[in-house]
Design goal:
CATH topology: Rossmann fold
Strand order of the largest sheet: 3-2-1-4-5
Order of helices and strands: EHEHHEHEHE
Strand content: 15-25%
Distance between the termini: 27 Å
Largest sheet: 5 strands, parallel
Helix content: 40-55%
Mean pLDDT: 83
CATH superfamily: HUPs
CATH class: Alpha Beta
Number of strands: 5
Oligomer: single chain
Number of helices: 5
Length: 149
């Protein structure tokens, strides 16, 4: 059997401690397979809604994203893993098919990810826990191997 070939790992993250843990797992896999890591920062529904309505301070949102991604970038440097990231709205009120799970799978295709690591956060009803709801969807529909942590 040929060895598993992984060139790019995708880690959808939302800025939570659970997603930082998922990033650590994603980095370990990328390091093991000499792959790149692409982190996808998925914005919560409330943040996306406020930005679209003009009620959010987009500079503050960008600074929060950059701060979190700097922490992930530092971890990547510790592993000597090439790192990139992008940002996406987890929800769009005018497109029902646009939800965190579909956003993650679309991003996986766009960046040609060979492996996904998703945080499986407890679904507590907190609207800011955007990835907890997406993990099951990604596990069911991803065409790539998925590790849920």
């Amino acid at each position: 059997m040929p060895p598993v070939e992984i060139d790019r790992v995708l880690a959808p993250l939302d800025g939570s401690e659970e997603s930082l843990t998922a990033a650590e797992y994603a980095l370990a896999i990328a390091d093991r397979y000499d792959a790149d890591l692409h982190a996808l920062h998925v914005l919560a529904e409330s943040v996306a809604r406020d930005i679209r309505a003009g009620d959010a301070d987009e500079t503050a949102v960008a600074e929060n994203t950059e701060e979190f991604m700097t922490a992930v970038r530092d971890l990547a440097g510790d592993h000597d893993v090439p790192f990139s990231y992008s940002e996406a709205y987890g929800f769009l009120p005018d497109r029902l098919s646009h939800h965190p799970g579909s956003v993650i799978l679309d991003a996986a295709d766009e960046v040609a990810a060979d492996f996904l690591v998703v945080p499986r956060e407890p679904v507590s009803g907190d609207p800011e826990e955007v990835l907890g709801k997406a993990a099951e969807y990604v596990l069911m529909y991803a065409s790539q191997p998925v590790l849920s942590v």
